[in-house]
Amino acid sequence: MPVQRSELGAADTLPKSIERPRARFLRLSPVLLNVTINFMILDLESDMRTRSTSGAISGLTVALLCVTIVFGLVHHTDHVLRVDHSGWPFRSDVTAFTFSLMAYPVLLFALFGPGSFFWLRWALLLGGLAFTLFAHAVIETPGMQYTMWAENRSSDSHDVGSHNLPGYQSVALGVTAVGVAMALNVLLVASCLSMLRDGLRSSARGVADARGGVS
C-alpha cells in the first residue's frame, strides 16, 4: 500500500510538472509574437528604404516605357510596310532601320536592368532618344512618311520609284504614320525625363539617409 501511495503521489505530481512549463510558455507567447512582428516590420521598412535608394524606377516611368515599346513596334511595322525606310532583316540592305531595332534591348534594359546600373540604363535610353530624333528629322522626315502613304511613292532621293508594300494610297494612313512617329518622339522624351527624375530623387534620398546615419 505505501508503494501504491508513492506511485499515486508521483502520478499526481506528473501533470503539474508538465503544466508549469506550458503555462510559462503561454505567458511568453504574446511577448515572442510581438517581438517577431516588430522585427518583421523593421525589416520591411529597411527593405523599402533600400529599394527607394537602389535605382528603382517609378510607376510612371514604367508605364511610359511600356507605352513607348508599343508605339515603337507600331512605328517599325510602318517602316516595313513603307519599304523605302525599311532594311535588314526585311530587306537585303543594312540601313538605319536595322540599327534602330536595338531600341528594344535598350528599352527592356531601362525597364528591368539592375539598380546598380541605373545611370547606364538612363544614358542608353538618352542615346536612343537622340538617335530617334535625328532619324525623324534627317533620315525619314514627316514629309517622307506622309508621301509614301498619301501618294504611294517615295520622296526619298535614295529610293526613288519605290511604293509601299500593300500598294495603298491613303491620306489617312499618311497622317497616322506621322502621328505615330511624333508620339514616339514625345514618349521617349517623357520617359527620359521621368527616369532622370527617379534617379535624382533616389540619389537625394541616399544622401539624406547617409547624413541621418552619420548624425
> What integer is the average pLDDT?
82
What coarse outline follows from CA principal-axis ratios? elongated
Class from secondary-structure proportions: mainly alpha
Number of domain units: 2
Helix count, DSSP H or I runs of 4 or more residues: 7
Name the helicity range.
Answer: over 70%
Which radius of gyration do the C-alpha atoms yield? 33 Å
- SS elements, strand count: 0
Q: Could you characterize the architecture of this molecule?
A:
The chain is mostly helical. It has two domains: 1-52; 57-214. Helices cover 77% and strands 0% of the residues. It contains seven helices and no strands. Helix 2 runs antiparallel to helix 4 (103-112) and helix 2 (59-82) packs antiparallel against helix 7 (171-214). It starts with a helix and ends with a helix.
